[in-house]
Amino acid sequence: MFVSRGFKLICLLSLAMLHWAMILAVCPELHELIHHDADDEHHECAVTAILSGGIEHTPTVPVVVDVPAPAFGCFVASFDAQPAASFFLSCCILEHAPPVTA
């Protein structure tokens, strides 16, 4: 499978930014060096979102398929389709409509 260099670069930069935000969350002094208003209660950034628990992570279980499932004979599709009428053409919704006034 071919993965472009641009995709690898975006993944690497995203991972680096996440690690940098985690480092700033652990070191409040370093966070104050980066943001001078970091001690303000109205300061909002990725670090304060991490510290306040504003980021949720939902783990997913990867689905791995090693071998395709066996096909059973009872699930063979039949192609003898019967023509069917349209449901909406069989409904007479305007059959008892009020008369048209000109």
Broad structural category: mainly alpha
Average of pLDDT: 78
Main sheet summary? none
Compute the number of strand runs.
Answer: 0
Task: Give start-end ranges of low-pLDDT stretches.
Answer: none
- What would you call the shape? elongated
Per DSSP, what share of the residues sits in E-state strands of 2 or more residues?
under 5%
The helix fraction, in percent, is 25-40%
Order of helices and strands: HHHH
Return Rg in Å.
31 Å
* Count of separate DSSP helical elements: 4
Distance between the termini: 68 Å
Walk me through this protein's architecture.
By secondary structure, this protein is an all-alpha fold. It has a domain at about 30-55. It contains 4 helices and no strands. α1 (about 5-25) packs across α2. The protein is elongated. The N and C termini lie far apart (about 70 Å). The model has no long low-confidence stretch (mean pLDDT about 80).
